[in-house]
Fold each of these.
Amino acid sequence: MSKELLLQRHGEHILILTMNRPDRHHALNHELATVLVEALDNAESDPSVRVVILTGSGTRAFCAGQDMLEQSGLEGERGVPKSIAAYLAIDRFGRSPLPIIAAINGYCYGGGAALAISCDIRYASDTASFRLPGAEYGLVVGAATLPRLVGAARAKELIFSAKKFDVLEAERWGLVNKVCEDDDLLSEVILLAEQIEKNSTTAVKESKRVIDAATIDANVGKLEDDINRGLRGSPDQTERFLTATRRVTGR
């Protein structure tokens, strides 16, 4: 497994996945996105794993989104379909039959916010902050999934404006289940995971399947993907992304 993703077992049935790119606030590059999918594949094939926890190392960030330097071509291997890996990881977590809890410890932006939304439950530290900047970059990010958590009008406000919002707003709007102090976040999430793993594994998975069927329209997710295929690489999207990259990185 890559050094960019740390795996830890808590007891027999809880798997903790810790994104580990602290110098980039755990931004989703091709390698991290790929090993996230591999780790989840392995967890699903291991009958001893009943609950998965996803977090970022340290206290500054959960995930700052897609790696802009890699995606812009300023860093990384040329020719790798970099933009695809992050979206595949987000989609893969959303489709997992396992219960997944996000422990959001800091920045949760863009693709990182979409990854958190793809999890089943979100606990966040009191220093966490959120932003869905897809419209600024010329893409659609979170439009297929955010409305089921915060409602259509709030989702439109957050996605259309691409504005930053804090953890108390996220909790009030239903994006976050619980706010914890930094030092208590992981222990609070583990406590919840321990409560879940004691219950019937089959019943938990089937409950998740029914809840998702009641609240997620797979056709809408496909619609977002199809729209982004048309937007990605257009002159407007390319210029917007490069402008944002220069602003964030200074390159």
Note: The chain has twelve helices and ten strands.
Amino acid sequence: MKFLSCIKVFLFVCVSFLTFGQKPNVIVIYVDDLGFGDLGCYGSKTIKTPNIDQLAKNGLLFTQAHTTSATCTPSRYSLLKGEYAFRRKDTVVATGDASALIPGGQQTVATIFSKAGYNTAVVGKWHLGLGPLGGPNWNGKIADGPLDIGFKEAFIMPATGDRVPCVYIENDHVRNLAIQDPIQVNYLKKIGNQPSGKENPELLKMKHSHGHDNTIVNGVGRIGFMVGGQQALWNDEDMAQTFADKAKSFMVRNQKNPFFLYFATHDIHVPRIPHSRFLGKSGFGNRGDALLQLDDSVGQLMKTLDSLHLTSNTMVILTSDNGPVVDDGYIDGSKENLGLHQPAGNLRGGKYSSFEAGTRVPFIVRWPKKVPVGKSNALVSQIDFLATMSQLLGTTFNEISAKDSRANLSTWLGKNKTGREYIVEQAGSLAIKKGDWKFIRSGKGAKFNPLVNIELGNDLEDQLYHLKTDPDEKMNLASQQKEKLHELKSLLELEMNK
């Protein structure tokens, strides 16, 4: 039986590569806080995103694609691991000093590519914790990081731009760290004598609207306290270009080898401090300017592919970790200058929300001559990354570890017009979407977050919406459609208990 199983896998691999030719490169561009209405190709008439629009023009644009969560850490965990983050109680928005949520040796999308002979790299935002229980050792070799779960190269920020430590990690060490100036981080109390946004607002070049008033780095108050590492601190204005340069360098060095690049941008997350090339150019505040900077980064990567003659053999996937938020802690002109721009399009909610705008995001796949040009209404979930990439490569994977991931390559290649039967979404409450129906589980919690001005979708009662006739999710049909309510509620409970 073991011999027959090996033969089966061998034939699968052969058929896969005969079908697709030489091993294709794969680039995943994982944008931060990009909304369903932020891009021209998704209907925006305000902010110009020509490079991303061109990517969509030459590829397949999905209109019913979802993250697994309305916040970043759970989405990233699920995408890389193939397991819903709600199965782990500790998979919430991670602090900057959190220990690794995916410890070394575990299966990820990167291990799938690595075992298939690919060179693999992550560039950009990590936000999945580092190090063993108790957190990372910032002043030495950082264990349980990307290099321990399938990535051969890493150039990352540990968490987010608004959280300390504000340093880059290159492979498994803090870049440019001086031994005589060790880093200390604390999220419970103030340490050292570094100025803070709360105590020294006169030192801020960007004021905070709520929170974000701890240690000041580069004139911006952050979440958490940090001392040391002065030589290693990043410059926010240069961050997008720094990440783009690292990604392009990886592509150039691996132009003759199959590669997988996970490019996780910081844009358009706060603090939004774009380079002077983009500042004030959108007319919609710093968030709009950061969108222009994001589009430029995407353009740089695509031009590099063209110059290396790799475009035809590279699958490019662009999507977002969750829906949009305008004021997420800083006074940066984004709220005041929003104008007619609608980051969520015509969807209800946003980041943090169980409503559609929390998890329904842009999803574009481009692979010349392999993926048709056009639009797809197929239902897609990022939970399927691992299984779908395994199917692309013709390899097997540990289905117990990635229990929620399903192979959907035919959908991503535009052959299957339906996609998943249903998807599960995580925010304040769990939700499930099947066909034209969506069920949001009852639960405690605020219905509205006034700090970010977003409806969270929480309610003490079950919610049921028919999205085809009620895309705004305004008419709760739970009391009228009891049979459909029971169907979706039972299906969600089945998923929760797997």
Note: Residues 1-19 have pLDDT under 50 and may be disordered.
